[in-house]
Amino acid sequence: MTGPTREPAGIGIVGLGVISRQYLDTLAGHPRARVVAVTDLDRSRAESVAAELPGARVTADLEALVAADDVQVVLDLTTPGVHAHVARACAAAGVDRYGEKPLAADLASSREVLAAATAAGTRVGCAPDTVLGTGVQTARAAVAAGRIGTPTAAVATWVSPGHEAWHPNPGFYYATGGGPLLDMGPYYLTSLVQILGPVAWVQGAASRSRDERTIASGPRAGERVPVEVATHVTGVLGHVGGALSTVTVSFDAVGSHARPIEVHGTEGSLVVPDPNRFDGDVELRALGAGGWEVLPPEAGFEGAGRGVGLLEMVGAVGLGDAPSSPRAGGEVGLHVMEVMSGLLDSAADGRRVAMTTAPDVPPLVPLTPTDVWRA
Prior knowledge:
The structure is a single chain. This protein is α/β, with parallel strands linked by helices. The chain has 2 domains: 9-128 and 305-327, NAD(P)-binding Rossmann-like Domain (Rossmann fold); 130-301 and 331-354, Dihydrodipicolinate Reductase, domain 2 (2-Layer Sandwich). It has 10 helices and 17 strands. Helix 4 (80-93) packs parallel to helix 5 and helix 5 packs antiparallel against helix 9 (330-349). The chain starts with 8 loop residues before the first strand and ends with a helix.
């Protein structure tokens, strides 16, 4: 963690796949956070990334990275099946971990991630941090201010024909820990938790259209990968506050005209922009109004990119020192994993599944300009 002298937090990155570029764009050059070490199964890829970052080096493996004296927090960009392994290594070494979503490949492993960190006295952050941008945070502020009255319902929709159409190595999307729910669901479910609070129960249904997918691009084009998970999931979430959210995520649809998230209340309705992005227009239609109005940004990090949640975790965004509970934190990540696990369990046996976790919703992010959180 950063101390009174405001020395940059030392970050070690494990996993340098496709998503790493977006994180590097956010972290590179930040005055209060510095990437000091990287590691990847493909050493040449690690060497290429390290060459871009002044002072960064390549470590032989994860164990060497977490043992380094100048690494205070590990950024875990590995595939979901590896998240729990990385988290255990971080806890054993006494370093904090911020990881890509989901928290781990399944609910049991996710619980182990937080238990290990608690026992070690380390902190856990978890994507998505897109919910800290002006899109979701402005929508949350509007609901909190009573702009839609009492929230009653929400609808969240994301559909796609499948990631094999563009990803050169899509196998993990169709293995345990993948599927549209665990891949894209965290963006939508985390947004709903931010806006409407934790979930008390879920009921779901799921299907799988086919048992194989064909890679469409890259050196493996034409190769078939097995499908082990549900590729269309839908369900209802009963929030603790009483609102009902209906969620659909799919790798089995070509497209949709549906808005990403709509939130309805007794006095109005909100359109929430794409939660896979940080910004976008929040639209409000008040009861009795003739149409929709675009709300100006009222909260959130302006111009943010992936990694702002990690920067907030280390106290590098101008909102004070490193918090004990990051806004993009493990407790919410565990709750979202329990929601997803509950939807799949419900789909398998038809029962309503009660949640056992109910995290506090993180504090609203005040409207924070780019030149503040990057300073």
